[in-house]
Amino acid sequence: MKFDSEPYKVQFVQKSSPTRSDDFLFAEIYKFFTDKKLKYIVRAELYENNTFTVKYYAAIHKYLDDKYSVLTHQQDAHRIFITCFAIFNILIEKYPDASFAVNGSCSVDAQHNKIEGENSNQRFRIYSYVIDRLIGRDNFEHYSLPELSSYVLVNRVNKDIEAQRDTIKEMFLNLFDFDTDL
């Protein structure tokens, strides 16, 4: 994966309040456009445990139930990931005490009629690889949770880092359906 790629230009869109059915406190929404003029939306949702989950989708998939999983076949995943991590850096500056978590959605490839399994999926493996190389360990403790296809960065300002990790893991278990009993 190319780490020397420039991120796409990111624009802040808005700070959004949750609806009644949402579990998060607020979301910061960003957008960017790829070289092929494909618009992406990035949602950074802050939860009560002072943890942001960061997720993104191509705007053309906005109304799909599985919008976070659909592949676009644009061949620029590395630059999209780099751009999402640029947003991560924006969030760190604004919320220096926050922890972060990403969940690798299982890929849905409509062109090839394939749906990937949820545990230790391809996106999770890519996120783990990229995050481990792009995010330092001075300010964050890194935790890979392959059984949840999730990667967690616990901010070292937390008094009990392992308890925060467990809280985030429990949050994911409450938010998403997983294939196996955990």
Task: Provide key terms for this protein.
182 residues; alpha+beta; two-stranded antiparallel ribbon; 3 helices; 9 strands; 25% helix
Overview of the molecule:
The chain is an alpha+beta fold and 182 residues long. It contains three helices and nine strands; from the N terminus they run ββββαβββαββα. The chain has helices at residues 77-94, 122-134, 161-175, and strands at residues 10-16, 26-33, 39-47, 51-58, 99-103, 108-109, 114-115, 140-145, 150-155. It has a seven-stranded mixed sheet, with helices on both faces. Strands 6-7 form a two-stranded antiparallel sheet. β8 and β9 form a beta hairpin. The N and C termini lie far apart (31 Å). The mean pLDDT is 83.
Per DSSP, what share of the residues sits in E-state strands of 2 or more residues?
25-35%
Encode the helix/strand succession as letters.
EEEEHEEEHEEH
Helix amount:
25-40%
Span between N and C termini? Answer: 31 Å
Kindly name the structural category: alpha+beta
Total beta strands: 9
Tell the overall outline.
globular
> Oligomeric state of the chains?
single chain
Would you summarize the structure shown here?
With 182 residues, the protein is an alpha+beta fold. Helix content is 25%, strand content 29%.
